[in-house]
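Standup notes, structure subgroup. Blocker cleared on the cobalamin input:
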Amino acid sequence: MLSAVELKEQVKAMGADLVGVAAADAPLLQEHGEEPAKLLPGARSLVSIGVALNKTAVCSGNMLLNRYDSMCVYERINQISLETTRLLAKEGAKAVGIPPYLPVDMGAETKGMQGEINHKTVAAIAGLGGIGLNRLLVSPDFGPFVRLGTIVTDASLQADQTLNENPCDQCESCRAACPVEAIGEGGDLDYRACASHAVRSGLPNVIAAMRKLPGVDDKAIKGIVFNPDFWDVWQATVSGVFYNCSECMAACPVGSD
Ligand code: B12
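Run returned:
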């Protein structure tokens, strides 16, 4: 089996700017409600990866350039996750990549506000950075200009240390800059305010548009849009993947593990 140092070198060679390892049983993970064994029974380690955004694009004020940069970075994270799970499989370990963004659980409880795993929490534990006042992972080298991914594996890898010092010094610039005042004094985030502004081109706008249709009964619309099945259809549409069954593949005994 590869050592953690060798694995991290290879993941960097795949194009990751940051990589670290957290133990699946780290007390901090449990404190934050993360349960990697639910995603992979027998999980022992989490490989956290970061790919830097193009600061020029993010700060350009041009949303199309900003979005395009995010799209490219997510693609790179997806590719690294795929390659890392394959590399670990070659070494005889089981591994799963966790989506960097979509799909997320769109159930009535989480309403799309919680990932299968919180990449920021994993990254902070794996030493990639600290959680800033803006609730983002702030890396010493890239600040918050980094997107994250996580690979859960049953390989036992030497975990990295959590940073001793948080790179965020609580200067409050993020709080002052937030156009919807979503960041509270102590760093609490008003998810609703943030989401209705930051991702308004997504589902919130579709719902708003449906409600404005002439002759539409608001109660009927509510019945449709607050149904988790509708959210699932929405998410399948934007992510482009909509299969609901693979049992015939999963049951087949042919091929190696
Ligand atoms: C749902 C979601 C949202 C929601 C909710 C935001 C949120 N804070 O979670 C909305 C739509 C509002 C949103 C907005 C944005 N998002 Co978003 N979002 C996610 C998603 C899919 C799930 C996050 C989740 O599970 N949250 C659950 C809540 C409870 O967690 P939380 O607010 O982070 O709080 C926990 C931690 O902060 C932790 N914690 C606090 N302090 C400390 C200290 C230590 C040491 C530790 C270990 C943990 C810890 O404790 C809290 C409770 O567990 C993730 C992808 C993923 N799967 O992780 C991306 C993600 C968090 N989003 C991201 C980004 C960039 C954004 C936006 C900037 C939008 C944009 N332009 O892309 C804004 C920024 C909002 C903000 N300031 O936080 C990035 C963050 C990258 C980074 N550097 O941190 C992620 C990781 C996507 C990615 N793959 O890179 N997002």
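Discussed briefly. The radius of gyration is 20 Å.
Next: hand off to the docking folks.
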